[in-house]
Each structure stands twice: as C-alpha cells, then as structure tokens.
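Lab notes, practical 5.
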Amino acid sequence: MREFNRTQMIAMSSVLAAVYAVVTVFAPVPQYQALQLRFADCLEVLAFFIGWPGVLGLSLGCFVANVLSPYGLLDMLLGTFSTVVSTMTVMYVGRNSSVKNFEGNLLISMGVSSIIMGVMIGYLLSFYGEIFGIAAAAVTLSQVVAKVVIGYPIGLSLPKFMPGVFHVKGLEVEMRRTE
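Output from the prediction step:
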C-alpha cells in the first residue's frame, strides 16, 4: 500500500466523501430501506489500495448521505459506524495482500464487508419494525451486488490503469508506452 502525504490524504478523502454522498443522494433506486442498492458502496474497494483516505472519505460521505435518511440520527451514527468498520476491514486486508493473494483477498474483503454492513444495517432497521433476519439478508444481498458484482471487477482493473496509486506489493503491471 502506497504512503500518501497529508495534502494527498485530505484531497482523496474529500473527493471520496463528495462522490459517495452525491451518488447516494441522487441515485434513482432506494438507498435507505432493507431493499437498497447503494452504488456508492462499490467505492469501498478503494480502501483496499489507498487505506486511511478511503476509510475517512467513504465514512464521511456516508455520514453526509445519511443526514437525509428517514431513520434520522440513528442511521447517521450506526450507518456511519458500519461503514467505518466495513472499510477498515477492507483496508487491513489490503495492507496484508501481496501479488500471490491479491485477487482472493480482494474478493474476501468485499464479501466480508458486505456481511458486516448487512448485519449492522439489519440491526438498525429492526428498530423500525423490520424483521432482523430478513432485513440483514436483504441488505447483505444488495451489498454483495454493489461490492462484489460491481466493486470487485473495478478493484481488479485499478492496478492496470493507475499502477502508481493502486498497487499491491509485488504486483508487476506491464506499462504501455505511447511513442
């Protein structure tokens, strides 16, 4: 995982927070119910590569997006906390990845992250009359779509397109020269 200076970290975190919040607020599908599809959660794959700027930016973006949640303060706090735990899980798996286990670790981190979010948001929704098991399963399924179906292929392609930023120890990416 590459180290970034303070200015780079602030810039990346700010951009991720803004993108997460805007995509969540303006997505044309439900974002706050048990049957939700937060496309912005596919950005969580960035925490695998960039670490703390990804955790901070996505968590702040989640907090801002949850200000508009019909579940109020509880969603702002528990929803954001679930994003913090989820992205930190992805970040720590990314820190311990090498070229030999890159693809597997990326997939595992996205899957575990989906389960974490499903359980925590299912718990939140149970306060509002949803059946915990059904809500947790529905949110987990939507997270799998966002993180595994959409985010995982993005994560596999990032080292090829921007190896200076998105890289894993020992991962050699063939650079194309334009001559």
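Observations recorded by the TA: The first helix runs from residue 6 to 26. The chain is about 70% helix and 0% strand.
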